[in-house]
Amino acid sequence: MQNLQSKNSQIKAVIGTQWGDEGKGKVVDLLSDNFDIVARYQGGPNAGHTVKFDGKTFILHHIPTGILRPDISCVLGNGMVINVESLMEEIEQLSDKSIDVFSRLFISENAHIIMPYHIQLDCASEACDDGSVEVIGTTGRGIGPAYADKARRTGIRMGDLLNFNILEKKVRSNVLYTNKILETVYSKKPCDADEILSLLERHSRLIKKNIINTQQYFYNSVKQGKKILLEGAQGTHLDIDFGTYPFVTSSNTTIGGASTGLGIGPKLIGDVIGIMKAYTTRVGNGPFPTELTGEIGEKIREIGSEFGATTGRPRRCGWWDGVAGKISAQLNNIDYLAITKLDVLDSFKSIKLCVGYKINGEIVQYLPSDPDVVDRIEPVYEEMEGWNTELREIREYDKLPVQAKKYLERIEEFTEVEILMVSVGPRRSETIWKKDLT
Ligand code: IMP
Hints:
Blueprint: E1 11-16, H1 24-31, E2 37-40, E3 49-53, E4 56-60, E5 73-76, E6 81-82, H2 84-96, E7 105-108, E8 112-113, H3 116-126, H4 143-152, H5 164-185, H6 193-207, E9 211-212, H7 214-223, E10 228-231, H8 255-260, E11 269-277, E12 280-282, H9 295-303, E13 316-318, E14 320-321, H10 322-332, E15 336-340, E16 350-359, E17 362-364, H11 371-375, E18 378-385, H12 402-415, E19 418-423, E20 431-433
Parallel strand pairs: 1-10, 1-11, 2-5, 2-10, 5-7, 6-8, 7-9, 11-15, 14-16, 15-19
Antiparallel strand pairs: 3-4, 12-13, 16-17, 16-18, 19-20
Helix pairs in contact: 3-4, 3-5, 5-6
This protein binds inosinic acid.
């Protein structure tokens, strides 16, 4: 039996190190030039990238931005949950702008489908104010209920679109079950199985040929020496196991999720690149030790345009959290950091970095799992002088102001991870490479 060997890190992964929205889209876009395949392994349309390319604007929720480069194939892995209707809208949007998607997009037959009733359940649960459920502040895209059906073993998968008899049986029984919950628990209108079936039938006609066995696709691609970039969605601290549970998403956003979400053995994954914003943001509810609720937080939000790409919600903003960053580096075995949005801090006189959590007088370097303890965290800060200079035009690391370099060096030292690149603006060109990755 032939075992595949990783050839000089033929597969690299990009992971969010915070609570999502770290700017992974830009980094994946920059890196994807050197790859043949870009693959997503978890999450679904809770993610969102707005990309400007060739003077056109694209909003992508499922499809990796790699699709904008004509030689790259994109994969939606088995670990994902897919809203077929919104995926079709993305494909149409790309096709309308003359980007050929059908010959380069491959969807795992084992990926689960987000049904209209998953969205109804997600929104109904989030609207509860009677104390019967914890309100998470989800994106309302049906992510949790779709993964719940996967775990309950009643989920409907992309492969089911290829066999209408099975699909019909599954949809009818799931609708029967879900309607009981919608009507009796949430006092909502029931959903209609015929409507769902006709929607799925209409869309499946167009994407049938793109649904494949992606495990075999990856095995063969690795054997052929193809270079593969794995794109994580959300961030490490939204991971269902290691995040700030229950205020998390419903998938494994950390590096292990890449392996199970695509069917690629962990030993084949080479460099892991952690994307880290120069400060911290979070959308939705849940712990956020370095959150700034006053003027400074407001200023970061405004300069950084910190509003959700999927829901438009204002993001909560705070100082860089070294403890969260360090945990992320450890959990994901991060090889390099990509620091994004450093320019957002250009006009701050002084900047704080959180280097510990004080709990009951003791300083710790981990996030406790007990929510009551998390509430009592006092961040321990170091304060640094700001650089008070515009960074946008700078392209060489050595030309950065000394204060900015000190800030970055402290991040490297604290997380024990080397910086690969620094982003100083949204454009591709507004990037400083500290190291050559290839
Ligand atoms: P869900 O993934 O929609 O169930 O939402 C669960 C939590 O994850 C909520 O706090 C969301 O705001 C957060 N979340 C989900 N997707 C993203 C994302 O792409 N960026 C940032 N936060 C996200």
